[in-house]
Amino acid sequence: MAPVSDSNYFPSVGQCLSGDKVLLSWKLVATALSDATGERQKSSAIVRFFDDDYVRGLLSEPATAFAPPDEATNKSFETKTAPINVTSASTERYDINQFKEDAKWLSKNAKVNLVAALRVVLIEYQSRSSRHLLGPLSSHDAANLQEAAGLQNGQGLAFLSDLGAAAALDADEISAEFDKADTRRRRLFDTFLTERRFFIMVADYATSIKLYQRLPIFAPGDDSVADLYKLRTSAQPRDEMEAMLPAYLDVVSSCMSGIEAGMKAFTDEEVLLNDGVELEWIRSLLTEVVHSLSVVLQLVDCYGSDFPPSSAINQWFSLMEIYGFFDSIQPIDPTTAELVMPMKVLASAISIGLLKPARALAYLSDRDEDPAQADDVYDSYLLSPDVLEQVHKSILDAAGSDSETACPVIFTWSFLLHRLNVSYQTRTDKRDNLIQQSAREKFETRSVMRTPTGRRNSAGSIYSIESSKFDGFLENASTPRDMQVVEQLAAVATAQGRVFDIMSKMAETLGPSVDGSLSPLISSRLRAVFLELLKVSYPFVGYQSDSVSCLHALLSPGRGYWDLSASENMPVDQDILSSVLRDDLAMDFFFQQALDRYPYEFLPFITLCRILCTASQESPDERTDMILDLLLKTPTITFTLPNLFQEYELVQEDENTNSFCLVEEVPLISLSSSWSRRYIEDDAYRIPAGTYGRFITDTGRVVLMDYPHSTLALLGRRLEISLSQEGYRCELGMLQSEETAEVISLLASLLRMEQLKVARQGGSSSSSSTLVRFDDDLLSEASAHISGGKDIVTVVCETMDYYMQDEQAMTEDSAVSVLTACVKFLHAVLQVQPSRVWSYLARTELLNSESRAGKLTKITGSLELVSERFEFLASSLSLFSALIDTVMSSAVQRRAGSKPASRQQPETNPWLGTADKVLSQVSLSIAQTSVDVFENTSTWMFDSESSRISLLQRVVPILDKIVLYTYSMGDCPRSDNLTSCLRPAASHIIDCFLSPSGGSLRFQPLLLSFISALTKSDSTLYPKRTEAVRSQITSVLDFSTTLLRVAKYLERPSTLVETYLFKTSTLSARLCAVSDHFRGPALSLLEALVVNAGQSTSEPPSLLGYLGPHISKSFLHILAAIGQPFTLQSEVKTTWRFFTSILKNRQQWMSNCLLTGQTPREAMKEDTKKNEMSADSVFATALSKLKSLKDIETREALVILDFVTSAQNYWPWTVFTLQKDTSYMDGLRAYVRDLKPSHQTVKTDAVLAATQARIAAYIAEIFAMQLYHSRHLGKADTLAKGLSNDLDYYLRDGVEVSSYNKSLHNNFARNFSNKFFGCSLDNFKRTVVGPRELGENYYYDLDRADEVLRFDPGWQGKKGAGFLNEMKLANANLSLVDAQIALFHAWELLLLELGTCFPETDATKKHMMQVAQQCLNANQVVPGPESIFLKIVDARADLALILIQRLVKSTLAVKDVNQVLDTLIGTINSVEEPFEAESIAYYRTLLKALFVTLRAYQTASSKAAASSQADLEGSLVTVTQTILNVLDTVVARGFRSLVSLIHDKAADVFPEDLALLTAIMQACLSVPNIEQSQTQILNIMASHDATHAATSLYSWADKLGDHGDPVYGELSILFLLELSTLPLLAEQLACDGVLGAILSANLTKYLLRTNVSPYADAPIAQRCYGIWVKGMLPLMLNLLTSLGATVAPEITYVLNQFPHLLQASVERFEAPGASRTKEKSAQYLTLLGTSEIHSLALLTRVLAALRANNSRDIPPVEWDEAGLLENVDYWLSSRRLLKERLLPLGPREMEWRGRKLTGDCDNVLEEKVVVQLETVRDVLSEEFEG
């Protein structure tokens, strides 16, 4: 057969080195299989790995995985390292020859073939960064950690030496040492050993999956992996198992011989010959032995009732003979000590399992009964004398050496040997008898009867009783037929109950517990083997205290109260408790016996009930509830008859059964004579006359009575009586403290199992009532006969109080056990009667209160925490954790009151009457206690390190939950939320850790946790301990993260925690290398740390600085794998988020590492390549992934795009890197090009639509950035042209943000608050404390809501249509809205950038036009209520304004302007209250857009004038009506409203608003042909009384001035000025006496002052001058133009009112030095002054002309025209001087002066002044008159 390819197991060397494929090491596979979260087992890499024939071949023949060298592997090695297989990766980064040399070295020194060695070499290369991180601390790290721990110089050496920091080398020295060849080779050898250990662990786990169809540990989906990996037994499982047994026994044999020979026999390499390596080598071999034994045990177990092959039994016992059942192995150090015990236990169990005592005994007895049974039917070891000889010899040797491990085996063999002897003896006797009988018959008949043909009767034939095959063994062996040997063997085993003690001890070390060495499955099967031995021994040993306590020890592991859970259950056939319940023999031998002696012997029965009631409920049948049923209805009772009681008569005396019948009743419980007067006698527990019973001892008065009763009720009554201590007489005796503890524990376990049963049946809202009902049944049953109106809960609470009051509780362990049991009971009752538990804790002395210290503190306060006290403290913490959970889960239920659930039965609310004050007070005490315990874990002394771990594992989540529950939901930190009652507790915790007074003691447990995780050796055993370490470290990391996030949320300074965490950041980073499990939590912590540090205004601490360049490099190298090979989505996202936070939060050096792949030091060395991106940098990885964006999972795509956009935004130089290779852009464009419209996607999947929109937003941002930089580099053309074809998605969906489902949110909020009284949806809003992701859990915290609202059937609803579904829909909808908002902003950037690059192209114009209209149309729809929508509306308006401005600049066609104008008017009309505070800014933007659009008509008309005037006029006719509407609704009405608001002094109205309306009116009146509509305009203005409004505003302007500046005067007069441009309106103004109104105003009186000039200092003087020049003079000019002589006298009068202004206007233009009287000062010209003389010149000239005809009515204007003309001529002739003396006023004139021109004038300002001066000259010159 062709050899199976190993390409999956060992991909090509080139692919491994280039990083294209991750070489799956056995350690990684083992990590996946042992993952208790159940995620890694399902990863595609692992599934592929197991679905491979080569890998399966290795697992069934373990010796081949690391086989010794041979010719075939040498050839394969040459092929694998040939150039063709290596060139795929760049050879700069590594030297293939070095790898080959290393492989050859390892092959020689580890006696392993070259291919396996090469695989190890590559694994070492892959894991080098991890190994570097796990190396010793540098002096820099050590100093930081000492500071963090608050230790002074040299103090911290003890705890730092664990981490190898005692030497405290410099980081460079450590790195140099790490890179040395010898160090590398030691690492290689260590990697080789690690791989061997984890290979055999994988083989062990894979065997469990294959044989039992499940993982040996508990994990979600642990029973589905067999199908996933296709690991199933073949069609002939027996053949397969028979092949595997010797294979794994050979592994045991070779490892043991290796240990015997020693390391020196293995290798002579100097580098490896040291104690450390040798210890590691021994540990590896022992580990291989343990796992191989585990495989053997499983194989033996799966033979069931069949005998395993004799050859295997022979091989095993030969081994055991050589190694004496491993009894002589002595541990060298703690790591090997951990392996020795499981070896011994497994050896013992395998020996018993191979002997199959129960099956063997049954086989022998069957054979005795039916001798015809053929011997050869079975391959039974019993029929092979050689095998029996071997077994006997090895067991005799073990007995001779007094082997403890072999004790159970010796015990087993003694029964088998006994049975063999009995069988032999019986047959010998039978044969002798038959021979005698036959001889007699022969003698009598003297002839031999011929037997008829056919089947002869075998029963009596002598032939059939011929010797059995094992007789040879009995006859050959020295003295096995001698019963004395059997007795000696049995005596060795059973002396002082030794064998039972040994089995008990073995069971304790197995687990499943934190200190248990084996997995739950193997532990259960092992204990089943010992249980079989117990059953077999029962006929010989009987019911004894030793065997019963051994049974308890075998059954109890893993089923303690706190171990019970709904998820961790073995299938019934693999669970030892379930098999006992279903095993009639075991139940008869032990349970029935215990029942018959109860309550005379109290503890055995109660303990057995407590253990058996926790049996697995995986597949319930009639045996599942057997224990509970029995406790509810117990048939008998055993006790001592009172001495004086004689009222009974014996019955059935002839049968001698000691039976009797009562003549009178026997009171079991009665009041003592002194109390009987005070209390009414209880009739219960009187055994009535006529009851039968029997004496069960020949002497004494112990009787077993037939008395059906409820044990639960009796136990409740006895608890009550033992509490009172006096007043009662009880024939059953008072309960001792051990018994009290056991009873309360039993009640707690029963309640807990009922709760778990309900939870498993689908503990949703519907079954919460069932739960309460079941538990109430139990509680009421236990309370049935308790007197005084009390119930069992009261009695247990009083018991707890009694034991806490008693000083003995401080000293006696049994009393502490009672308290522990009470705590468990409170926990069990918490589910059913939470309010009672809370109120009890509020008044009890267990916890601290304001006035006293709690008893918990006193009892556990000593430095040494021995087991009972530890158990009490741990139980209390578990109760506290559950209490905090109930605060959260009952948050709504507590407020709800009690509503009838249905017409049939009102459902009571268990929280009725619970005050928040009680919860607040107790939770504060819990927080204080938890903080104290947390602190003390670093100073207390524990009996084992695992105790400290499990304590932290319990206490840290309490602190975390209190803080999270308080701040992770709700509107804002100070508002009232669902868990406000936890706020004092949360504040206490936050103060403890954030306030500077906290000190470093608070943080020492954090430090010690990290250090313990880093110093732990990686064990393949002790799964529970490994899991405990993982969960404890994870909880510490999570809690630290929570502290940082909450500090940020509450805006509390977190410098103390930050400094501490920065100093210990080296440990957080190193944890990522310890285990994959720590990576996510550690990165979340570092992310939160970096984010918080980045908030400060000063430069944040550098993470790279604290880690050091070497550690940073290795750390980032590990992370750069982005979760490979398991690629768990959560881990991938966390990693990218961490990278992004580094870029965003000013972590300059680490950002550089991420973007270029080089540390600062490396960058300095290679200065030429600075800021060059290396191919393995994280940035390069991100870009390569973007090339195939379509193929990436959408959530991963989001985080990668976030990373890339952050790189562009925060580190702009990356753009130049991006310009070099733009291939990633093709991936982005392809993605956007193929996106379907969101309104289609949303119908099927709203979350997908949201994710796509968000991805498109990131892509638009990247495009915009690229365009921006390309434009500056002059390369934008091709990119922009390419992009413009891929914008369909943006043009469709970029602007509208229309997906907000208003009715969904409104109805949901309304129905929700109606349903859940006193609770609004806002209570479930997520805060920034937890990260949020687009999806069904985005805005409202769905998981928390589910926890809180599950109690109500309406939450799930019928067919899943309840509030839960509504919340999912609401979250998905808000995700989509949020994504579309981001899309809008990104599209805005991209579009504006495209517009800047290509303003003139038709495509760009078309896009801008389309988007502008989309923006305006979208704004006409009423948005959602949230403020975010108002911002969007504003943003859309801003975008529309910019786009319209750009479009107008590039000259639009009139039809396009019309289109924009129509849409704009529609949008303006949709604003209901334009001048309200909320909408005025938005309205202002729309008005600006309107102004810009109207101005477009002027440019359009000037363009069109050339082409076709007729077309233009045709299109303008349609516009006129629109313009009139604008003048009516926008200008006139708006002006009127504004004036009234200005009079009201409304704060949100600005002078600019009036200016804007005036400008719009000006633009309207400038539209061609508008003069034809003067009458309509006049009517419009009249209808709104605009003229009056303007004059009234002018008259009040001096009072309404802004800081003394009468700006409204100028604005109102400018408004009138614009009106006066139309003759008809000017006429109306004159008729309305506008000039008289202006003259009479207060403001005009200011004009009479002398200081009114353009250079005045006072703002009012400047403003008045502006009113005069810009307003009054042009207004009079317009009036004069329209009305001529009619208005001339009035205008002359007005002008003559201001003689000083007329005079000053001339004087300002005086030539320098012309006047001798004036003092010398620099003379300046201004544009405003020029405008003044320009207007005056025109006015005076026209008036002069009119006066010629009517000198009587029109007086002359006193103005020195001649002098002015002379001066103007001077200035025009002295242009250089004019340039020098030209003074700009205001920013606009400054801008004009800055705009240069070619020709006579240098700039625009000068040109404007010169033009006006020339006009003045022309107007005033003599020729003009002519």
Would you kindly provide a written description of the structure presented here, covering whatever features stand out?
Residues 281-436 form the Nucleoporin Nup188 N-terminal domain. Keywords: mRNA transport, Nuclear pore complex, Nucleus, Protein transport, Translocation, Transport. Its main location: nucleus. The chain is mostly helical and 1826 residues long. Among the domains are: 13-133 and 180-303, no CATH class; 634-709, no CATH class; 916-1081, no CATH class; 1447-1684, Alpha Horseshoe (Leucine-rich Repeat Variant), CATH 1.25.10.70; 1698-1825, no CATH class. The protein is 64% helix and 2% strand. The chain contains 86 helices and eleven strands. The strands form four sheets. Strands 1-8-7-3-2 form a five-stranded antiparallel beta sheet. Strands 4-6 form a two-stranded antiparallel ribbon. It is elongated and about 185 Å long. The relative contact order is 0.03.
Tally of strands: 11
Could you say which overall geometry the principal axes of the C-alpha atoms support? elongated
First and last CA, distance: 124 Å
User: What does the largest sheet look like?
Assistant: 5 strands, antiparallel
Q: Please list the strands of the largest sheet in the order they lie side by side.
A: 1-8-7-3-2
